[in-house]
Amino acid sequence: MSAARLLIAGALTVTLAGCANTHQAYNWGRYDPALYAYYKVPANEPQFEAALLEIIQPTGSKTGVVPPGIFAEYGYLRLQQGNPAEAVQFFRQEEAHWPESRVFMERMIKVAEGPVAAPAAPVAPASTDGPKP
Fold this sequence. Notes:
Blueprint: H1 3-19, H2 31-40, H3 45-56, H4 70-80, H5 84-97, H6 102-113
Helix pairs in contact: 2-3, 3-4, 4-5, 5-6
């Protein structure tokens, strides 16, 4: 093998090795297992809420950027728990950190701030016996 080819192969190897990255851009914490447990058993809501808060309020060396969607997820959880004012705060944080979510977050804010619709009156089931004489 010529010296030029050996040099090119070596440079290519070093370049490709430099592209390898094992560092994650975001700290997702226990999000995946907590979300799965919550979807599987909704009674696991407190554990899911705690997992979201661990990501939003990092302590010690786990500082960094909150992953996309986490503020919105926590805001939606607060909305489901009957806290629309807190939900709006987290929707606004999502929009501030991730501007591409602006349209969706504006809709979620309208939902959270909007009037609570009264439940529809029950409709009597139609008779299957046909007309009576």
